[in-house]
Amino acid sequence: MPSLSPSTPLLPADPHSYAQGPPLPHLHLELTIDFARQTLSGSATWQLAEPLTATQDLVLDTRELLIEQVQVGDVAGGEPLAYSLSAPDAVLGQAFRVALPAGATALRISYRTSPGAAALQWLAPAQTAGQHPFLFTQSQAILARTWLPCPDSPGCRFTYEAAVEIIGPERGQLLALMSAENPQATAPDGRYRFRQRQPVPAYLLALAVGRLDFAPLSGRTGIYAEPATLPLARAEFSELNRMVEADEQLYGAYRWGRYDLLVLPASFPFGGMENPCLTFVTPTILAGDRSLTSLVAHELAHSWSGNLVTNATWNDFWLNEGFTVYFERRIMEQLYGKPYAQMLQVLGEADLRHTMQELGRDSPATHLRLHLAGRDPDEGLNDIAYEKGCLLLLTVEQLVGRPRLDAFITEYFARFAFQRMDTDRFADYLTRTLLTPAEAHRLNLPAWLDGPGLPPEAPQAQSARFVAVDDALARLAAGTSPAALRPITTEWSSQEWEHFLRGLPPTLTADGLARLDATFQFTASGNAELLAAWFPLALRAGYQPADAALEKFLRQVGRRKFLVPLYRALLAAPGGRARARKIYQQARPNYHAVATTTLDALLRQAEC
Ligand code: BES
Ligand code: ZN
Question: What is the chain's mean pLDDT, rounded?
């Protein structure tokens, strides 16, 4: 990392951002979207809070941007300014530095993105559900800097407005959307304007462009999707408005105006991304029976935990995700009852145990507070923040009771809205405002925050509905035929099937799997979670009838959470390495940079 001379430390210390200098409360973005060249070009104008009284250095984050011109002021034609870029760092990019003159009120940077910009995925028509190209961004954790020069630290917020123009022959058929107030219809001239009135950090900047239709669900909720996907999506998410209402009842008003969902093409690398006003979701949660909507509850909950009160740096990621998982399960409990939420909790705890085992008992990566300096945050963030973070809140709930915890959380969101929060500040606030000294002693926060594994007081969830699944698994192990189990499985949800598949013995043979498949049709399932649990069993047992479905899945789906375990299982299967290499080579252009960075490393490792 290049060393920077100290300048006014108005921005927080963040090991993943070079940004320094005066506050930048507002961004004006003007972008031309060129599908033919796969570039965004235009300008980012940063407004200062007040005119500078003296010359001051400003440092912004950039990565692989081509800077064309830098000017003082907010209109083209302003005084050109000299700037410098530090030597590139593979993860952090380049520090962009200017000396702002006294009197400056704004800085305008004209630039273009490079075709390799990691936040952007440009999709060919064949990679969508329709006949048009598609573009989407994924800025979290530190990829916003690959599509605009910005203070790319979660502790630094600004409001924004944007003017976007799509060029090319298809301009009149494509709709542009951002994490902001959005249009609901396509503009024939390809021009769109956006405004985000609430201050947001750079990782919540988002843009998507495609042949998209809109379906309203209520006065403030709705769904954007490709025309072929919209009817399914509309049915799947019909409870969206009830979710928003349940959230507001729990922790206070929704502060972002509208709440819409955008269903992306299948190459989206995540399940969901909480872009303000417009959550991005993978189409792999369209199961047809609303069984995977807890993911929407999760992204919606981020409208409070994360988007209102934001982790100060990626070391404090658990403050975003742990709260959100806890909140997500409270909403699901409210909407679908305790037994449902308990299933989610048990599955989450199983994921956590698995991750902890992989990381190792004493690994610092199992602490809630992370130390990611010098590392790519994207590689250092895992299930621990989600599930251990949630367990900490469940432990507090057990200690003080729900009414006190709920009052505390409501107050926490109100008090720190639109602010950054770090682990120490949270620990201090929790200890001072919620816990008695005796409770604080019993909770033992240091063990949670800076200790490995799970403290012994961590609760362990039980699910009555999984007892029936365990019973079915036991009968199967004792020789009962799958067909004989059918009657008790007819009412099972995705979660029960997931628990079932995870509970099958790893020693199952291809014949055993064939019998299960004949009865329950796993290979033909339209539920991505079930497929992702089924394929590794098939690979381990060499159950070939699943091969074609697996390949199809790997070619279509870009969700990293599924791809990593599937490629791992494939690499471990007999003859699997060559198959993995071949499929990956063909499928790779369909994956986002977030996924290929991880998978390139996985496949490279397998070579040695
Ligand atoms: N904000 C995260 C996604 C994320 C995390 C992107 C870190 C980049 C870096 C989002 O809210 C999330 O957690 N998504 C999960 C789904 C959720 C239900 C656990 C996902 O994508 O799987
Ligand atoms: Zn999340």
Answer: 96
